[in-house]
Structures
1.
Amino acid sequence: MARLSILEFPDPRLRKIASPITDVTGKIATLADDMLETMYAAPGIGLAASQINVHQRLIVVDISNEKNEPVILINPKIIATEGEREAEEGCLSVPGFYEPVTRPARIEVAAINRNGEPYTMVAEGLLAVCIQHEMDHLEGRLFVDYISNTKRQMIRKKLIKQQRQQA
Ligand code: K1U
Ligand code: ZN
């Protein structure tokens, strides 16, 4: 297993649209394992392949306190939604900032697992928020796209300053 480095806003590579995975090979299973290790180490509750500069449709999530309920979603698709809910979101690619975002409260998702088998799952609460947030990454969208331009520019400037100081 390996820890991968996470791209940070405003890196333009975070804006790329990810391609579908056509074959779930051992390489994809290893990538999913590396993404889980990277997510747990960060620490985070989700990670999209786009965040580690791999532009393929793969996300991982685990909202359990014990970090023992990993979910791997390959080519995830939302097939049904219900209701609306506002919740605070954070992002490992936008470190240190949290903002409220409104999204569907309950979703049904179709995906493929690490063995290449299709499945569906229903998610609500934090799990629904996290899956939708990660799926946005695959479209090159970030939670800061849902907030005001003024706030987004402020976050952008602060992160650029931090990144210059760390370089
Ligand atoms: O996409 C990411 O960068 C992961 C992100 C997922 C997420 C969190 C909250 C709402 C929506 C999506 C994070 O994991 S940010 C870190 C975080 O929220 C967290 C970290 C440790 C424990 C609990 C939460
Ligand atoms: Zn994120």
2.
Amino acid sequence: MRIVVLAGGVGGARFVRGLREAVRWWHPEAAIDVIVNTGDDWWLGGLRITPDLDSLLYTLAGQNDEQRGWGRVGESERVAAELQAYGVTPEWFTLGDLDLGTHIARTAWLRSGASLSEVVARLQQRWDLGGVRLHPATDDEVDTHVWVASDAGGEHDLHFQEWWTRYRAQLPALRFEQRGLAAARPSAGALAALEAADVVIIAPSNPVVSIGTIVSIPGMRDALRAVAAPIVGVSPIIAGAAVRGMADACLAAIGVATDAGAVARLYGPRSGVGAAVGAGPAQPGLLDAWLVDEADAAVVDGLRADGIATDAVPLWMRDLDSAAALAEAALQAGLARRSAS
Ligand code: GDP
Ligand code: CA
């Protein structure tokens, strides 16, 4: 069995770590490929930074800082202090010393002509990811910018990282812009993984700036809709809240309620269309099946009537066991669709 996951950073990494555990126990023959959001990537201090890819790399390698929730375990910040003293990096974005090693290696390889996919392949050679393979959603640079109102009237944009990290997503976003999107293409590794997939899982990740960015890469939505495999989504929203992080601020910016049912309708049933965002046209839908938390059981019947096979299960990934149980539930929801069709 070949399992493909679409994932952002923290929610995606927790889910994939749980899925890897479920596969070890119950499906030892299965392979896991992860298509990772690159919309949060940016250039800082002359280095290319890829936060979501690194969250997955470090978490699956057992190198992540569990206390902080991001970055490397045992990290120090001596170089960061130097960079900030020179004014090369802002005080609101710290690059740890060990983390800088990854960024320097990545940038060196990119500068010597390697694609981001090749860079990711080289980075994961060093660590044992337990058989999981990571693929950037695209090799093209598509950095997310956020448009906000200016004090003096009018509006201006800032890089997603500044909006997210410096302003904690508290500046009301007028809209998101994926700069470079029109010319971008899905990575070859992502497309090959989708073609071979037996089940596709949309992880409980930010529906706007993680999953939304992946599926808006030209060609990606068509590639997803072309797979024979069932597509199962897991809600990142539980009982009207974003669990961890600030996904609610992103949903508000595109006019979607912070609600497990509203996110399912944003993605849309594969037999129909997703919700239109802003002035854009409605896009063809993605979901065969959807998991909501037991606290959201009230939305199940309505979503089923809309053509999305929905079930309510515990969605909180508190630890490895609960994440593995959730991943297994997603897998079974997909396999049930496969045998039903
Ligand atoms: P980021 O790139 O680090 O922001 O991470 P993601 O794109 O993966 O999305 C983070 C989102 O994942 C959070 O805002 C939550 O909505 C969701 N999330 C995080 N932890 C959990 C969890 O335990 N259960 C569920 N269902 N969703 C979660
Ligand atoms: Ca992210």
3.
Amino acid sequence: MKLTKRMLGILLLLGLMLVLVACNNSSSDEPTDENDSNNSEEANGEEEQVTIVYARGVDTTPASEAVIKAFEEKFPNIKVEQREMPSDTGQSHDQYVTAFSSQSTEIDVFNADVIWPAEFAQANYALELDRFIEKDGINLEDYFPGTVQAGKFDGKQWAMPQYTDAGVLYYRTDIVDTPPETWDDLIAQAEELKGEEGTEFGYLMQSAQYEGLITNAIEFIASYGGEVVNENNEVVVDSPETVKALEKMKEVVGSDFVPSNILNFMEIETENAWIEGKSVFARNWPYLMSSSNDEERSSIVGNVEMTTMPAGDAGSASALGGWMTMINRYSEHPEEAWEFVKFISGPEGQKISAVEGGRAPTIEALYDDEEVQAVSSLFANPEFREVLQTAVPRPVTPIYPEISDIMQIEISKVLTGDQSAQEAATNMQTKMEAAMNE
Ligand code: GLC
């Protein structure tokens, strides 16, 4: 049979339709950028209402609520539902890994500890943000370089910096004349001043066996000149400096000016005891300033200042912490998720979280803002920007959870008196080398 032009046309059309149907049905695993079902609504001129789920750790300040309120006012078509994760970053981490490794679409946006992006990027849990950043002309140079770096892996940006953390020393201005400069000075003042103005303790810190212990330990280690992993990615933790630092840490934890259950203390226990007015000094992150001045919860409003951490032989050191915002690779609303990420990590969102939550911005220019400066004298002090920028990072590697576990176990054994500081240093060295060379 001879095909007429018309029949050929019909056949081609049928073929094309088959291909289209096949494409639509091949329920691909890949996340889609656009939600096709929305098109008709948009064509009708109605703005589609989307709810995104934002997961974050416990926030004892009003900051998260305030940021979301401001966002929803600006983007009335996007509703943000919050999902509260545990306050212990390690526990949160494990819950995210469970959800994301099964490609759950439940969470759209999540807060990520600075130690996670490398691991989450490698495991394919997150969406690369570069195309959004480019599209919206976000200038990453406005941010502290270290905080941008923490969200980078394999040359791509996986996370936007939301706020940065550096360990700081809190003290009671109604008790302390001159805040301590060194660890020995802190020990002396904590012993001497404990009991004044109704306090029970001289010092509070985070020494439970969890991630916060690592940040406290890193501050001791760096202040005595030690390092865990050097810039060439070599494990160098077994050093006389580490040993001296861990001995000092043990001296503090074993003293009678800390609570007898200090080995159960995380940030939340520190915060509760501190705002109840129970201690002269405390180590925590900048947010505690906001809780300290919260009229409803705190009994020490107006009597708190923060300063840099006490120095060891090599000076004062703060551990670098902080939180980034990431998008679940399998989010069904990546565009709206990005809108929220952009807001919360942008100048408006960061200012709200500084003013309402005492969180340290990652955008340098915000430190010139008067309302941000009013949060604490440290925020107004240009030297604090230095502290933030020179804070000591934890090793950046996709196997960070393993490294952290090794340190948690070995350092805890020193604090409980089950091994010496030297034994811990030797064991950490051997175990970390093995983990990194696997
Ligand atoms: C803070 C820091 C985070 C750190 C955690 C440890 O949340 O921002 O980086 O891992 O404390 O408890």
4.
Amino acid sequence: MLRLSLAFIVPLVVVLGVLGVLSMQVSGPLLQGWTQRELDERAGLVSKALHGAIMLSLEEGNQSELSQQIESLTEDERLYAIAVCTSPNAVLAASRNYPAELACAEGRDATTRVGPAMARWLSQMHVRRIDLPVAPAAGGGLVSDAAPDGGHVTLVVMQNPAEAGRRDQQARNYLTMLFVGLGVVLALLFITVANWGWRHWINGVRRVLSDGGQAAALGRASPEIQPLLPDLRRLLRSVHEDRRILKDTTIEWRPETLKLLLREHLSGDEVIVVSNREPYIHQRNEDGTIRVQRPASGLVTAVEPVMRACSGTWVAHGSGSADADVVDARSRVRVPPIPEGGEPLHDAYTLRRVWLSAEEERGYYYGFANEGLWPLCHIAHVRPVFREEDWQQYRAVNARFADAVADEARTDNPVVLVQDYHFALLPRMLRARLPRATIITFWHIPWPNPESFGICPWAREILEGMLGSTILGFHTPYHCQNFMATVDRFLEARITQEDQSVSFMGQRTQVRDYPISIPWHPPADDALSRAQADQSALREAMGLSPEHRLAIGVDRLDYTKGIVERMLAVERLLDRHPMWLGRFSLVQIAAPTRSSLEAYSALDHRVREEARRINAWAAERAPGTPPPIILLIEQHDSESVRRHYRACEIAMVTSLHDGMNLVAKEYVAARETGDGVLILSRFAGAASELHEALVVNPYHIEETADALAKALTMHPAEQRERMRAMRTRLADFNIYRWAGRMLLDAADERQRARVQDRIVQVSGVVAPEGLFRAPWRARQAANGGSPAAAERGKRAHKV
Ligand code: F6P
């Protein structure tokens, strides 16, 4: 805007300045000439007007007629005085205010007669002397005294210099106004032409973009655009490729698709992931050997396939007891670990570990992240705790991770994927270290409304930190809206709803929903036999009959997951439908997490207690039958979890609040045989995609119990119908698509920045912000964006 204003004002000032000087130079002499001419002409007119009267008065020797005419002429304020002399000393007739002692004397003679003061005054007057010829016969004695052969009389016309000056000034003012007006017209003309030129140029670029580069390809693009053509062509190619990929509904989003996309759109660009939790944890066993553990983390489940597809670097907290023993001097290790005697993996990547002291971990991870932000963002009615010392650690650890990323970056513009609420400050810190980086931050948990977020004493700092990102992702449009509303409440930022972006401190951040998902694999050939084997094996291991009905719950032991409410729903089911006593159980896998925090140890205690109480209650009603709650508070690896999914015909996901919840999606993906029922909390992000689940309010115990009863009696045909719809959606909106959409948006942003740089280089003008947004919009339209957006699109179409 400033540049634009300058572009208007500077030419205006320059033109006015030049014209001002010109008007000064030209108008002075010009006006003097005009005034002189006017005075001379007026004196001439006076002489013509008086000539007859003079002749008459000379002939008749009577000056009264002449004197009258002279008086009437001097009534005009421009004429000061008039005299007619027959000789320098003899005045024939004169107006009243003519200095009589002067007669018609000139020069020194005149000064002698009137004295120096009057002479000075006279010198300021405009005095014009005109000799008028008179006939020899005329005048009798009067003229012939002075000029016996006829000769002449002298007419003296004095004009008022002040009046002439006033008119002079007036004319000068008009002239200046004329020049100024001319200047303004010229400046406007200049601006209009410049503006037209700029628009013409922009339209040229637009034409090249909108005709798909045809004009550029045929060499018909205008010459001003020629320097940009390589960049525009690349941009178009990338957009067309995106459209081709995304329009093609038959495309299978697989690791290969992601690889192709990285090669085509981010060719050669390095990708760095940052998360708190590491994807592989090296733990030391009691016997001294090392085992590799996979964490129970939805984030790791989702991001790992992306890393394997792009072979980048993952920076994370090294939390395992043997982590330090397996890294190189720069704290790096290649992962996934190669099994003994195995071949090197083609999709390995680098894990860079960051070491934290116990104090740092306490303040940053347990304190600010998990006692502060976690309960702040989840509505589970656990009060957030904010301590100043935790905040200080959180800041310090974010800065340490920023240093580690900058240290890992081989280029000055890597694509950095920042994961989750542990790193709200990291994007801005990274922006300071790597200004040209493309920073994609994904917030894996919900974002609350502005009132709730306002509880955090460092709300502004958190928002400012996050707005260092190029792209900021949430699971659902609702979380995006909450975030924008929060920014609006706390920061002086420019929010553009139309393209969902926030501009703050010179940085534009796109805020988008990217519903996270899971890897998708087509059903195995032996899916049925494998499922049957798993069903039998689990029942056998638990001492249950082959007909025993099972529901599964898999969670971290977290108060947001609604584990207690789930068990209460089982109790209510058995109370209402005693026929299921001894014939149905919930297998609850609960991976211990954050157990040093009071809220978590209290939950651990409560969950165990409720399971014990409900089982005792059931045992009283149906002695000797299997317990309704089979509680497994332990870690299970992903293969074991999948076996449980295949073995249990119902899954219960009853989170009180959840960003997405990948267990719901994993269960659907594992049901390759097409049967099974998912009971899903309406407060989990997954509910906005998996509509065919039995959606419940987990706080409403009876409703969940009813859903359980319905699931236990649902006809297999209905199960398959619902499962097929959910599986189709997941096959389409899988984790590769989640990552792909984010990376494509990043590629668009990078391309936009490159084209903009080029425009600045070529023209020195910053292109308007909206110019290169069309590709994203077009892709959103083609893609349907998220399943929710696709759904909205369909609804709109129907209407
Ligand atoms: O839900 C967000 C998330 O980051 C998950 O990805 C992960 O399961 C959890 O929170 C964090 O768990 P932890 O504190 O054990 O890393």
